[in-house]
Design goal:
Layout lengths: L1 E4 L2 E4 L15 E5 L1 H15 L17 E9 L2 E8 L8 E5 L5 E6 L4 E2 L5 E3 L8 H16 L1 H17 L3 H5 L4 H14 L1
Helix pairs in contact: 1-5
């Protein structure tokens, strides 16, 4: 198959190995800041930009967190950022609150691999703000209820990016293969 992948034209055969046996119920996580910065630098060096999302904001905003494990491929676990973005796109999943309102989304083009030792479970009950705690609980319940849909969308986006037929999607997505290599490299060094 002739496609362009991450700026490389030529024959490409997407080799990946899906793992399903260790998939557990979805949860929310925080990724270690140093690890995320490491991935951002790696993408920046290769592509001139990074699609790995910023996870830390100033005090005015709540810190970004991840939903996972949404995909296990090539011996790495993928997590997807939970974002306030509320528009339906082919490669995201809208999260709906109990009142029927869209409150957030999972944007699979920004998912990235994280070694288990560099994520921590986000304990919803530890949130000080009662309303925010209730919102997080609703979001998590909705994600768990739709776990199969979420994991299938993650797998679909992964395949679409690797096939490289939609250049707009490739440019607006993380470089999954690069990040997988960097994930393994980081885990072995640290």
């Amino acid at each position: 198959m002739n496609v362009a992948l991450n700026g490389i034209k030529g024959r490409f055969s997407p080799f990946y190995h899906w793992r399903k046996e260790n998939m557990t119920k979805l949860n929310f996580y925080s990724a270690h800041t140093e690890y995320v910065l490491y991935l951002q630098r790696a993408e920046q060096e290769k592509r001139g930009f990074s699609r790995v999302p910023n996870m830390v904001y100033n005090e005015k905003y709540k810190q970004k967190f991840l939903c996972g494990i949404i995909l296990q491929v090539n011996d790495v676990d993928y997590y997807v950022p939970v974002t306030s973005y509320k528009q339906q796109k082919p490669d995201n999943f809208l999260i709906v609150a109990d009142n029927g309102q869209v409150v957030s989304s999972l944007r699979f083009n920004y998912m990235f691999p994280v070694p288990k030792e560099f994520v921590t479970v986000r304990i919803i009950n530890n949130e000080q703000d009662r309303a925010y705690r209730a919102l997080l609980a609703q979001e998590l319940r909705y994600c768990i209820k739709n776990q199969n849909v979420i994991q299938n969308l993650a797998k679909r986006t992964y395949r679409r990016v690797l096939l490289g037929k939609d250049i707009g999607l490739v440019v607006n997505s993380c470089d999954f293969l690069l990040l997988e290599r960097k994930c393994i490299e980081y885990a072995t060094k640290n």
